[in-house]
Amino acid sequence: MVNEIDIPKISQSHLFGIKNLEIDDIKKILDLANFFKSKNKEKNKNYPLLKGRTIINLFFEPSTRTLISFEIAAKRLGADVINVNIERSSLRKGESLHDTAQTLGAMNPDLVVVRHGTNDASKQIAQIVKCPVINAGEGINEHPTQALLDAYTIINHNKKLEDLIVAICGDLEHSRVARSNYYLLDKMKSKVRFVYPEYFKPKDLHKYNVETFNNLKDGIANADIVMMLRIQNERISELNLPSTQDYFNQFGLTYEKLKSAKSDALVLHPGPINRNVEIEDRLADDIDKSVINEQVENGVAVRMSCLSIMVQ
Ligand code: NCD
Fold first, then answer.
1. Which domains are present in the chain?
2. Quick one: pLDDT at residue 148?
3. Nearest protein CA to atom 12 of ligand 1, as residue
4. Residue with the nearest Cα to atom 9 of ligand 1?
5. Which of 9, 63, 131, 277 is most exposed by smallest CB count within 10 Å?
6. Is any ligand 1 atom within 6 A of the Cβ of residue 143?
7. Distance between CA 239 and CA 288 in Å, rounded?
8. What pLDDT, in 10s, does the model give residues 221-238?
9. Is the CB of 269 under 6 A from ligand 1?
10. Cβ pair 32, 7 in contact under 8 A
11. Residue 304 phi, psi dihedral angles, 5° rounding
12. Does the Cβ of 141 fall within 6 Å of ligand 1?
């Protein structure tokens, strides 16, 4: 294969989060994604930069789009990909995260992608395996590749991140997507708003340089980007939540409420969507407003970019 493009280096050897990335790192990842996005439109989508390399996807939580996206990205780059099936692994026999990581590390992977319910799982694994680790969503901490693909999607609509008003709306307390997006957008000088009902107020709110709102219509007023979040039921134990109908009435995004945002505002959602809970059914599918499918498409290119930069 003739290399058509130089793969840049970034300041980090693992992708734990956006918080410790430099602005330059983010720009390099997003720039390279352009190259893979156009490759992904060709009939032959293979670009075997990682031929002979082994990538392990270690997902301890359910996932459809993120797992498939990482798998497709790695395969298009020619890597050998192993998805660890937790249901059939020794974790079901009581093996610890430490021992699982040690076992996988002994098989000499070139990169491990990890999703886990604990806030520092990717760092724990990186201390054991001798290769780069990418966090594919951990606890309520970070989900860096989601924020990168969200930023990529926004930029692709000819919007400059600087000075953009971005309203992140819904279950802020339990969302790693919100935290990674905050770090990225704040570094890029966007104006970030957190819009949430009181019961989803983030406990670590003091850490963020954001305007806050408790009313959706006010929170998205004049916004360029409206980013909706799923209610993370799997991370909620003690809260007394309203019925899904009441939540939709108060906090669901509808055509009517969206009128308060800019007329060309983009609607994002990381998926999976709960239709008519976080977002009105028809609006989710309206390609003049919603870029949810573009987020999924761009996710593959952005992850190809991350994988080829991290495995060098
Ligand atoms: C997100 C996640 O798992 O954090 N989903 C995703 O990766 N596309 C958000 C969610 O599950 O709501």
1. 18-143+296-310 (3.40.50.1370), 158-290 (3.40.50.1370)
2. 99
3. 230
4. 270
5. 9
6. yes
7. 36
8. 999 999 999 999 888 877
9. no
10. yes
11. -60, -40
12. no
- Specify the 3-state DSSP secondary structure of 142: strand
Q: Is the pLDDT of residue 1 over 70?
A: no
Question: Residue 270 C-alpha to ligand 1 middle, in angstroms?
Answer: 6
Cis peptide before 197 (omega within 30 of 0): no
Measure 101 CA to ligand 1 centroid, in angstroms.
23
- Residue pLDDT, tens place only, 102-137: 999 999 999 999 999 999 999 999 999 999 999 999
User: What is the Cα–Cα distance from 151 to 26, expressed in whole angstroms?
Assistant: 10
SS3 content of the chain, % helix, strand, coil (to 5): 40, 15, 45
pTM of the model: 0.97
For ligand 1, say whether the CB of 303 is within 6 Å of any of its atoms.
Answer: no
Each residue of 268-300: pLDDT tens digit? Answer: 999 999 999 999 999 999 999 999 999 999 999
Helical axes 292-310 vs 65-76, angle rounded to 10°: 50
Q: Is 53 in the pocket of ligand 1 (CB under 6 A)?
A: no
User: In which element (H, E) is residue 227 found?
Assistant: strand 225-228
